[in-house]
Amino acid sequence: MSRFMIKDTQLLGLKVIQRQPITDARGNFCRLFCAEELRTAGWIKPIAQINHSKTQGVGTIRGLHFQYAPQGEMKLVSCLHGEVWDVAVDIRLESPTYLQWHAERLSPENHTALLIPEGFAHGFQALTPQCDLVYCTSNSYAAEFESGLNPQDGALAIAWPLPVQNLSAKDASHPLIQDGFKGYFAQ
Ligand SMILES: Cc1cn([C@H]2C[C@H](O)[C@@H](COP(=O)(O)OP(=O)(O)O[C@H]3O[C@H](C)C(=O)[C@H](O)[C@H]3O)O2)c(=O)[nH]c1=O
Question: Which residues fall in a coiled-coil region (predicted)?
Fold first, then answer.
């Protein structure tokens, strides 16, 4: 019995993963990650890190972050407390959907995760006063390869559901795409 329903999006490689919980009188059990089942969704590397971020403040945004090639990372993003509006932006210069974005509401109640391939920037907005994200990455954190896009960049026109709040100084200072961004491969 499959433990996930895997759905494509309009951005090649970006998948919506619907966990299929097994429920009984005690509650329910579901897998957050399964190498065998998620291989078909494109996760072919070992997990390098599992991160937990706790975010407070409705409207808070973290992101949009990515690591340049060859230190790119796949991410499987799950929300285990609260609710977030999770966004992935295609930054593969040759992609027909370059700079297009896709968003999903993630919460423990909807059992939804986002599987984000390399070549995407990732960010999210807190829709509840506190949100806990747990996400697997396929590569280690490498500050020297890390960069980001400004979540309020007009070239992306991301329709954040709430007024943007509580950006870190780093996120507020990401350059605008018009200032010479050349995609994921061009550090
Ligand atoms: C990602 C990461 C960060 N750090 C250090 C770097 C900073 O000293 C501190 C906080 O980092 P940052 O402000 O980048 O954390 P977030 O804003 O939550 O960024 C993360 O959230 C967005 C939405 C993502 O998609 C990335 O996974 C990640 O960049 O943790 C580490 O030590 N290891 C790590 O793997």
Answer: none
pTM for the predicted model, two decimal places: 0.96
For residue 24, report the distance from its CA to the centre of ligand 1, in Å.
36
Q: And the tokens for 165?
A: 């709040």
Q: Say how many Å lie between the CA of residue 1 and the centre of ligand 1.
A: 35
The pLDDT tens digits for 59-112 are: 999 999 999 999 999 999 999 999 999 999 999 999 999 999 999 999 999 999
- pLDDT tens for each residue of 172-182: 999 999 999 99
Please say if 65 is a catalytic residue. yes
In whole angstroms, what is the distance from residue 28 CA to residue 18 CA?
Answer: 15
* Cβ count near 182 (within 10 Å): 10
- Of these residues, 102, 111, 122, 135, which one is catalytic? 135
Residue type at 148?
G
> Cα dihedral sign for 73, 84, 152, 103?
positive
Of 65, 68, 81, 98, which residue is the catalytic one? 65
Distance of CA 150 to the CA centre of its chain: 15
